[in-house]
Sequence to fold (126 residues):
Amino acid sequence: QVHLVESGGGLVQAGGSLRLSCAASGHTFNSYAMGWFRQAPGKEREFVYAIGWNGGSTYYTDSVKGRFTISRDNAKNTVYLQMNSLKPEDTAVYYCAAGYRTRLGELHYQTSYDYWGQGTQVTVSS
Fold:
């Protein structure tokens, strides 16, 4: 069992930055691929960024290219999402997810993940 807790959300002006954190329980964190998804009001949950368990390969959606960066610290059982140059369309609840030994080519699928956090609100004002 893995328990995920997101933090770091908040209110920021367009062009600003936030760093989200996702802390995981357990001692097998290095066996889980980690992903970030988001859901804006009235929209379906959307893939944002993911990092693999077997070497740290990363995958992202085009809308965040050059602005967001994912990283993980296995010693701290934590994954991060650094968000720069934020835009109003980035406003959403951001969710952290963990997938046990998820294949590298499947990280963008919600069904590839076994555990989900409760989410943290990110609001970008214009």
Notes: The longest strand covers residues 92-100. Residues 33 and 53 are 5 Å apart (CA to CA). The mean pLDDT is 95.
